[in-house]
Amino acid sequence: MTTQMIIRVEPGLKKKVSQLAKAEGKNLSELVRELLEKYTKERDMGVYIDNLWDKIKQDFTENNISEEDIDEAIRQVRLKNG
User: Fold this and answer.
1) Residue 72 in domain
2) What is the span of the domain harbouring residue 35?
3) N or C: which end of the chain has fewer CB within 10 A?
4) In Å, what is the CA distance from 38 to each residue of 63, 75, 77?
């Protein structure tokens, strides 16, 4: 179920955003919903961390880095730092 949100913007801004939405085949509400979803997703720390782990996993896979390689790297740093 959706709920209504009332915001105040300058008339010129509303006109520009409405035109952009129309050019994309959307209405103003659809465009604002997409923008709010994107905004919250980009700032959600949990999502950010999940995406970071996914990127790390992808980098390790692409570079053939195994769990044993990581364990060995940690062991070497610990030995070096005493």
Assistant:
1) yes
2) 11-43
3) N
4) 31, 40, 39
